[in-house]
Amino acid sequence: MAYNLTIGVGWEGKPDFPGLIERARTAEGAGIHSIWLAEAWGHDAFTLLTLVAEHTRRILIGTFIVNIYGRTPGAYAQHFGTLDALSEGRMIIGLGTTSANVAEHFHGVKFQPAVTRMREYIDIINLLMAGMPLKYDGKLFKLQRGFTLRFEPVRKHIPIYIGAMNPRSVALTAQKADGWFPVDIPVSRLGQAIDDFRAIAQAAGRDPMAIDIMAPGSVVVTRNVERAKTAHASGLAFYAGRMGTFYSEQLTRYGFGDEVKKIKQAWDARDARAAAAAVSPRMLSEMCCVVEPGDVGAARERLAAQQSAGATLHRVEIVERDPAAFNKIVESLLK
Q1: For 188-213, how does the pLDDT look when each residue is reduced to its tens digit (9 = 90+)?
Q2: Cα separation of 96 and 164, whole Å?
Q3: How far apart are the C-alpha atoms of 7 and 183, rounded to whole Å?
Q4: Which of 95, 113, 145, 154 has the fewest CB atoms within 10 Å, i.e. is most exposed?
Q5: CATH number of 5-223+288-333
Q6: Would you list the domain boundaries of the chain?
């Protein structure tokens, strides 16, 4: 079965610029569909995307994700339009709202109303990319001087994908975006969530099958399974306990309320290890699939389940630096 496999690059820690270039080239050579650069309060995504764009030729590149509080919509149009030119039309815009903690205590911008802000960012970026005079009368942005970008964009529209979780933001994504990043949806419930999403898109007069959907979980291939499981459990616990209420509410909606309570109790006690330990095996297996290189059968089953549920993009994390070994794993996943 054919899958569109994607890989991601994080935003924390000491930068390894040569390693990023090597990884991007390896992924491109192996036939990976796209590489996504994250951003929070670590390294910025756009500098790293510039490196990837300069050293690759075919692989699609995107932000997974940048938030709508760190820059204005006009600045994003400049960034993405420039990168689309540098990459010769390979850019995908990935936006999200982040949490109130990040918006207000890192960027100093009031968080609410998040859905209104997202709607206006989408509108303004699309206007600027299309070369239309920027005359926009929104609730948050009043822009009446008719600015246009002082360069000709490579494309009149760069696809915009949205990381959306609560019902209002999911509905906005179905109505206006080119792709959806579902968040913290267990694989056993993914099919229903995607069906509901596509119904909203269809009701809005859109072709629901034209909207890309990235599976929310990761498929991890590594020689150190336990280390990877611990890392993913730590990530789930961090978002559930330290990144506002949206993630914990989402996990609770999907039946992990007991785990969320234990995670929050551990964080209240400033015990990160206990928070990660509170992620149950069931919760972890619903959110990610971790296998050894010689046991990719389970990984292929997870990819097939995600594809059957309606996902069109699949995140993989292949912990292997040797290009030949990386290629072999990708080939095994795509059999």
Answers
A1: 999 999 999 999 999 999 999 999 99
A2: 7
A3: 16
A4: 145
A5: 3.20.20.30
A6: 5-223+288-333
